Amino acid sequence: MPYQERQNRHDKEEPDIQISSQLPLADGLAHMVDLLDDIDYQPTLPKFKLANRKINDVLGITSRCIVVSSTSSDGNQVAIKGVQDHRGTASPDTLEKEIMVLEKAKGGINLPQLTGYTANFLEFSFTPVGEGLSPLKVNAMPGSLPSIMDGICDGLNFIHSQDIIHRDIRWDNIILVDKNRPVIIDFNSATTANVPVHFSGGYICCPPEVLELGSATLEYTPIPAHDWKAYVLLLHSAIFPRLYKNFVVCWVLNKDSEESKALRQLWTSLGASTIWKRGLEAAEAANIDDELRLWVRDFLTIFPDAEQRLQNLFASVRVRPEEVVSTG
Question: In the structure, how many helices (H) and strands (E) does the chain have?
């Protein structure tokens, strides 16, 4: 997208910051320290009832929720997710829906295991605690990618057997435990299979048919194939992480946006590729054990260093990555 178009949209969303004069570095740093010390400028941690001991680390934070790690009374690490303090909100949104989904997912392989929740559903605890992932991080560990993809497949198979559609399968929602065991997390957008709903979930893994609708206000019917297509996109982003860098995902559901056009073009290009078409067809048919797993294994056997070789190619001939992907 042209810089000026991005800038114009940005200007409409946030007020301009006017700098009237130069500020000495020492004064600027002192002001930043003051802001860090001011509680009104800091995200507030919920008063976790489930934290038996001190909070060890903040694992994730959004405008709605905070996830922290804590040590339970038996010495084990647990993760706790809680609704943020809404500063006076009488009835903040609860986590009841996500808690009920996790109840159904109990015992599932490579899934979070619910260990407790409060009566008001404002927080719950689960295990295991793991390492967060990103496309670039996964790309740097190609030796672990086959087992990671296979483990995610196991997790998705289980939740689909319980009629749960995750709807937000992306690397942000995969943690790594014991170096190469993936665990699918964040079931906030999960819903029941084959029941019409409005779209909610990760924009980057938005189903192609929802992209075509161009609106989150129109109903669609979530099915396992939507998660499996997102699974294929997981592999793509691990092989080509730089294609997704600086992608403004919040504009995806605006059908006229450059982001929506780019993502729709990516799905079209993958479907036309002799390499990626096999995976997408298996995902569409939810043909997992007989085809999708085999395709991933074949792909990673044939192309273990595809990212490096293609990056070298891009540097030498100066073509756009998507042009290479579309002819695969």
Answer: 12, 12
